[in-house]
Write a structure and sequence with these properties.
2 strands; two-stranded antiparallel ribbon; mainly alpha; 59% helix; 140 residues; single chain; 434 Repressor (Amino-terminal Domain)
Length: 140
Amino acid sequence: MALTPFGKEVRKLRIDHEPPMKLKDLAKAIGVSSAYLSCVETGAKTPSPKLVDSVAEKLGVDQETRRKLQRLASESSKVVQLDLSQGSVHVRDLAMSFARRFASLDEGQVNELLRIIERDDNIAPKKKTSGGKIRGGNNG
């Protein structure tokens, strides 16, 4: 099986590490089996954010390389899981509705959703006033 972009980068970092690390040595150092780490490198398993952080820590990479690993892991993922156990009924309904429609979104819809999400990342949390109006954020 071919390596994912994340797997290629991890393999390169392992080999370039001083001293070079074998897959089994890195696996042992981060507390997973070598078979599991191999599956992550080849894309048969999706790397969790915790695993990515453990790999980055054990290989002693800088912040830029850590972010690159996180990005590559995200690009290499075929499945996304959401923990909805603490979410409201509305949050669960939103997630399920999105999942059902995900494959049929066109590029314009994807771009619009990304714009909304990225815009909201830059807005301070909104608060309701005693009169029920919403205040706060950058437009408040």
